[in-house]
Design goal:
Blueprint (H helix, E strand, L loop, with lengths): L5 H16 L1 H9 L9 H15 L1
Helix pairs in contact: 1-3
């Protein structure tokens, strides 16, 4: 079995966390006011950063 350094596991965990959490504020903004006018740009930044961490 291949053993990876701990930082690889931590990086993967951070990437998964960011990808999961990025959509929560967006869903809140869309679901409760029932409007899609306020699409959050910060959600796209957090999601993109999380995806980039998957590639590392």
């Amino acid at each position: 079995m291949i053993e990876y350094p701990l930082y690889i596991d931590v990086l993967g965990g951070v990437a998964g966390f960011l990808n999961s959490v990025a959509f929560i504020p967006q869903e809140w903004k869309v679901y409760y006011p029932k409007s899609t006018k306020e699409i959050l740009l910060s959600m796209f930044f957090v999601f993109t950063f999380g995806v980039l961490l998957w590639f590392v």
